[in-house]
# Entry
Amino acid sequence: GRMAGRGAAEAFGATKKVADLTSIAKAVVEEATKKQPEDMSRDELIAYAKELESRPAAAAAPAGDAAPAGITEAEVAKHNTKADAWIILNGQVIDVTKWIPIHPGGEKAIEGYLGKDASEEWNMIHKPGMVEQNKQHLTIMGPIGSGGGAAAAPAAGGGGGLSLNDVAAHNKKEDCWVVINGEAIDVTKWIPIHPGGEQAIMAYAGKDATDEWVMIHKPGTVEKNAQHLKMMGKVSGAAAAAAPTGPVEEEAPAPEGNGGIPGIIGAAIFLLLNVLIIVMKTVFFTGNFKFTR
# Structure
């Protein structure tokens, strides 16, 4: 039978010598009776280790494609014009060029962050899913690479290049900075047109106004007034922006109907009522009064 098999193999062109049954059986017996490392003596272990070292090294598995390095912050910074606008949002680089003209908060709100990481401000103002809702106007360019912004919350204390002492030097009406949510902002141009009056800002000139600002203003106020403000950079030691606790609610729509007082008389009454509310808020909640113990 073995000779017939060998003849058939040769007839089909097989040239490689096939091991005979005796050698195969011998190899099986040797493998079965071979000592395992845990059963070897010290000398046997040394000999076994040397034998393993003398074996040829196994071929290394082919390396897969290297993971993409991502887009660098330096590359994003080049796209900082209205005609070519990129920003970083939670680790992703997004082309917002087409969104600028139709942005509900105005063009200036976006232009203040062109070529930069806007994650912190974006998360503070916008509801989750805002990128997805406007994806027809946005282009996802890819993940940020080395040095990119991440979605992680900023560390407490808001590290940055400016110090509170640097900000304190700008405490005059003609050169006025304040700190809001860990960011130094030049408000010099905003002082003359501030709805709450000049004194409300000057009370915090050169200081951290985060607590009072958050208590009084709605999210997005900085962005809505971006044309009058200048972002100077992060401030070390200042209060960092609080992480959003949930979706930011939009302003409630105007109530339907006439409020129970129809006609021009009702319109005049509600106009005066709202003016009175605004005046009271401005007088009592913009830093015009200081209460001490």
Observations:
- Residues 60-68, 147-160, 243-250 have pLDDT under 50 and may be disordered.
- The CA atoms of residues 270 and 276 lie 10 Å apart.
